[in-house]
Design a protein that fits this description.
Helix content: 25-40%
CATH class of one domain: Alpha Beta
Order of helices and strands: EEEHEEHEHHHEHEHEE
Number of strands: 10
Strand order of the largest sheet: 6-7-8-3-9-10
Structural class: alpha/beta
Shape: globular
Radius of gyration: 18 Å
Distance between the termini: 17 Å
Oligomer: single chain
CATH topology of one domain: Rossmann fold
Length: about 230
């Protein structure tokens, strides 16, 4: 495994306006993630984990401190540069799936590739690979309303992975799934992490997810309370 750093965070602070004052969501975060990790930000609602995930994903910016993702300082990126980072190198998985209901499974998975200017044969090969990874090649012509919740989340995983991103950010990806579907999704992501060396970072308070993590980073009130490597 490549031991180079994919995320480097130093003294990160994030504040939001609240009434006449401010709310400090993140307070002095120091964190390094290396390529190929399968790790998670763990904490209750309001602990800062989603805020941290959004900053790492260039969807938000720090109030102060340094956040570097794939060698790029997040605070220094303009909107176009941040969009390029997300388009080319990051994959996102959300609890609400965020699939386009009027499009087929194939079209939903293909969508990130349309932004990269790839040829139709290139796109087809990559989409079929991604659908095979999640076991949904037989559903490629179906539309999301025809699928179960577990199948929709597998489509979301395929869409996040189709361009083989360096980093996948997953925010409570099993929140709407039962135990069996949660384990299927997590096992699929663990296999992709191992086979493709893709780095995964979750934000979660779900024990089903936590039990799969190889590294657990616990947040309380915007600070890292504990950071542990899980050895099996």
């Amino acid at each position: 495994m490549d031991n180079s750093s994919i995320i480097e965070i130093e003294d990160l602070v994030k504040r939001f306006p609240m009434g006449r004052g401010e709310f400090t969501a993140l307070n002095g975060i120091d964190l390094t993630l290396r390529t190929g990790e399968f790790s998670g930000l763990i904490g209750p609602s309001g602990s800062g984990k989603t805020t941290l995930l959004n900053i790492i994903g260039s969807l938000d910016t720090p109030s102060s401190g340094l956040v570097t993702v794939l060698g790029k300082p997040i605070a220094e990126l303009n909107a176009k540069e941040a969009a390029r980072l997300r388009k080319e190198s990051l994959g996102f998985i959300f609890q609400s799936y965020n699939l386009l209901a009027v499009h087929t499974v194939y079209e939903n998975v293909e969508f990130p590739l349309l932004l990269l200017g790839l040829s139709s044969p290139e796109r087809k090969k990559m989409v079929m690979d991604a659908l095979e990874w999640v076991g949904l090649t037989d559903k490629m012509k179906s539309k999301p309303p025809q699928l179960s919740g577990g199948e929709c989340q597998r489509v979301a995983v395929a869409r996040a992975m189709v361009k083989r991103p360096s980093l996948v950010l997953a925010d409570e990806p099993t929140a709407n799934l039962d135990a069996a579907n949660s384990h299927n999704i997590l096992k699929t992501m663990e296999n992709l992490n191992r086979e493709l060396k893709t780095t995964f970072l979750f934000a979660t308070h779900d024990d089903k997810v936590i039990n799969y993590l190889h590294r657990r980073i616990f947040l309380i009130d915007g600070r890292i309370d504990k950071d542990e490597i899980v050895t099996n």
